[in-house]
Amino acid sequence: MLRNTSTGYGRIAIAFHWTMAVLIIGMLGLGLYMHQLPPTEQATFELYQLHKSIGFVVLTLAVLRLVWRLLNPSPKLPDNMHPLEKVGAHLGHVGLYALLFALPLTGWFMVSASPWGIPTILFNTWPVPHLPVPGLLGSQEQAETFFKLLHEYGAYLLIALIAVHVAAALKHHFIARDATLKRMISTAPAKADS
Ligand code: HEM
Ligand code: HEM
């Protein structure tokens, strides 16, 4: 089943979730790793280009995923969850979705503002234009620093949200013993609804 139902995720939502989970966790690791390499090395430059290229793949997938989510029903959270837990789960998901956009966009603004003017060539093939940077942020250096801070602290916030998200998924599976994790792995529970 491709589409979500009111009780389970469909194959498309599951494929988006796990493809993006792998990409995001890889990008967080790559970002933190490349940041502490010597900036003038050719290998560092290539890792930055790879980071930017995968970042644009994430941005594209985030747009497609959001459209798919809006076109589909959202599976209901388990009945045994406390109302406050449900609010927390929704806020957590909204936060994750927001950061799936915010990280690539702040990265894009950062490289656009940089006085170095380094081009972004996706996978060494497709050039990406720089974004117009609002003048009210001051000089190019100041604007670059602003977006760098947003990108860095956005990444730390994303790491914290993912840690809580994974802990919640494991708690559902091993302590509450409900179908929350299973329905993000297989469409089987959703089939029961059709
Ligand atoms: C899923 C998307 C992304 C994630 C999760 C991500 C994550 C990160 C992380 C964790 C860092 C290290 C931060 C630090 O230690 O200061 C970083 C650095 C960086 N990112 Fe991203 N990033 C993403 C997308 C992008 C995109 C689309 C671009 C540019 C088009 C970009 C450009 C950069 C640059 C230039 C740095 C180095 C900043 C510096 O030198 O301080 N990132 N990113
Ligand atoms: C790697 C370990 C991960 C596990 C075990 C996991 C588990 C889950 C589970 C079980 C759900 C379904 C919750 C429900 O049915 O209400 C879910 C939803 C979601 N996850 Fe994850 N997740 C992981 C990583 C990630 C990452 C890295 C991200 C993105 C940064 C992410 C973003 C989301 C979002 C946005 C939803 C809501 C989907 C929707 O309703 O449209 N997850 N995750």
From TrEMBL:
<dbReference type="InterPro" id="IPR011577">
    <property type="entry name" value="Cyt_b561_bac/Ni-Hgenase"/>
</dbReference>
<feature type="domain" description="Cytochrome b561 bacterial/Ni-hydrogenase">
    <location>
        <begin position="9"/>
        <end position="186"/>
    </location>
</feature>
<keyword id="KW-0479">Metal-binding</keyword>
<keyword id="KW-0249">Electron transport</keyword>
<keyword id="KW-0408">Iron</keyword>
<keyword id="KW-1003">Cell membrane</keyword>
<dbReference type="GO" id="GO:0005886">
    <property type="term" value="C:plasma membrane"/>
</dbReference>
<dbReference type="InterPro" id="IPR052168">
    <property type="entry name" value="Cytochrome_b561_oxidase"/>
</dbReference>
<dbReference type="GO" id="GO:0046872">
    <property type="term" value="F:metal ion binding"/>
</dbReference>
<keyword id="KW-0812">Transmembrane</keyword>
<feature type="transmembrane region" description="Helical">
    <location>
        <begin position="153"/>
        <end position="174"/>
    </location>
</feature>
<dbReference type="Pfam" id="PF01292">
    <property type="entry name" value="Ni_hydr_CYTB"/>
</dbReference>
<keyword id="KW-0813">Transport</keyword>
<keyword id="KW-1133">Transmembrane helix</keyword>
<feature type="transmembrane region" description="Helical">
    <location>
        <begin position="53"/>
        <end position="71"/>
    </location>
</feature>
<keyword id="KW-0472">Membrane</keyword>
<dbReference type="GO" id="GO:0009055">
    <property type="term" value="F:electron transfer activity"/>
</dbReference>
<keyword id="KW-0349">Heme</keyword>
<dbReference type="GO" id="GO:0020037">
    <property type="term" value="F:heme binding"/>
</dbReference>
<dbReference type="InterPro" id="IPR016174">
    <property type="entry name" value="Di-haem_cyt_TM"/>
</dbReference>
<feature type="transmembrane region" description="Helical">
    <location>
        <begin position="12"/>
        <end position="33"/>
    </location>
</feature>
<feature type="transmembrane region" description="Helical">
    <location>
        <begin position="91"/>
        <end position="111"/>
    </location>
</feature>
<comment type="similarity">
    <text>Belongs to the cytochrome b561 family.</text>
</comment>
<protein>
    <recommendedName>
        <fullName>Cytochrome b561 bacterial/Ni-hydrogenase domain-containing protein</fullName>
    </recommendedName>
</protein>
<dbReference type="GO" id="GO:0022904">
    <property type="term" value="P:respiratory electron transport chain"/>
</dbReference>
